[in-house]
């Protein structure tokens, strides 16, 4: 919300005096310099001591597991095995050898996850912005509708998954009941048809998570000063022009935040497809995390699963890097 | 006064007698030990198990068992590290889909014939295939405590309405009865002109696309003399017998129109509850549900779809003794075996069936308590139930098998192509898994 406020104020409009007031004056500098020189109030090591608790947690919960995972991925590893021979990059090579099931299923799951992200992210941003615009206006029952759209988000993924699996059941689902009984159409086997199986997953996910993004957008909208709209109205701006030239640019920081969090959440697709389609039919909705879980806990191939997790992590890292590059450019461009 | 004394004396004598009887029953007479017992009975079966443990502790002053219930999946993930670090519980219950894998990885210890004998555990007490579920390479590793099975529920009302008087037990009877049960929205029967297979009003048998649905294909394959894996433990569910058996099931949908295409377990369960389908093959665990609904239903063994033998899928839980660190107290192992013996004895197994399990031995199945109950319909053939165990790569075989069933049933692939693809995928994965066991 703070970011939204500052983002909404174009830098050139900030008066000089405000800037000089908010920056510590020259008077502060000698005191800092003295502290640095004296060293009696705390040695050079002091800041690191303050960082130590976090460093310990970081080492125990991030560095150690990552290092151990890397070790596992380079050995034929099983806790119960007497020997755990070093196999180098064998499990990484498997991912690029078209003869192995891993190369087939891993890249298939990456493709599925990418497809899901590509479809669900624009929907989750567009629909939540639309809802926020509708519910920002003082309409009757506004608070009620805001709660209604936010409520699905408090459900667990299993509840949400079972609900949407029932809705889209091939035979007894509500969607097919409407198709056959009201519209006179043939039922569609959503859950067992390649392609169609994505419909319940994506519709369910949008229904489930839209409220959170909507709330962020509502907060962003609340921070846009009405004076811009009043000025635009005096100039005779159309509603579309007001949205295009006032609302959308001033929501840019919120949109960036929503975009980044939604993309990361979409890449972590797991529960929805697990419950609704169990990855089927024919692994066409199997997410990468689901496949890694299968390889580790159903096939007991822990090393192979670790190698895949590292490849997946690498892909996420590259993606996040690109996203930050674009973010930085946008932040510069739009202030 | 005199009477009271007499009663007290009687009670005392009875109590002493009881203790004496309990102590002669057990094989363990060593110093007092405490055992940890890890199991996954966390649902409605948990209080039943806890009651049994309390009874055992009361009757065995020198063995104290501490039960610990946690979800099965957690145990599968924790057991390797517990065993590797020498902190494994003294007794662990392992299910049929995991047990061979844990045996092959050395997580559980073999139970020698001498040990079993001195603990009073006789293999012949249990159903043969059930006990063998925890065998591997000629050794026994677990004693069955709990069992579930694939059965065929039938709706008596719909059968009567359709003129079916006998529960089908053969392939021909199953097909004929299923035809009789099938009508489309306009009341036409399969084969009549104008029959619309896409909008069935009632139908013969429930087939569906998930792993439970694929267990009917498993039964049919075994009945036909086929198997999931061959003698070298490679996947072999595309043998001619297997293809023939699965083809019959797929034909029920595609050729005979007596089952719905593209259906799910939920949809078929609802249809059976609503009286729309005559035969619903599934896990016996739905029995309670249908009894509570006051349905007029029966339970039969899966009909003979194949030509060689009776067979159906079963799931089971086995009490095992994990591998322990060097220097593990031998008294504990003896006490653990005494506990296993007690828990898998007829009286305890009878009590355990309250939790929804099938009897694990014929003695219990013959108990009067079951007379007239629907589930008793399968008791004569509990010795023909076979778990998907015996190969250490359960996931590698069953994943592709279930997928092959889904593809054949939906008509995405021919039966042969689907099973061939499944076997090829399974064998690639098995080749990789073998390296872990060298």
UniProtKB/TrEMBL annotation, chain B:
InterPro entries, alphabetized: SBP, SBP_1_CS
Name of this protein: ABC transporter substrate-binding protein
Record has Secreted as a keyword: no
Entry similarity comment: Belongs to the bacterial solute-binding protein 1 family.
UniProt keyword list: Signal, Transport
Signal peptide range in chain numbering: 1-22
UniProt-listed SUPFAM superfamilies: Periplasmic binding protein-like II (SSF53850)
A UniProt-annotated Pfam family: SBP_bac_8
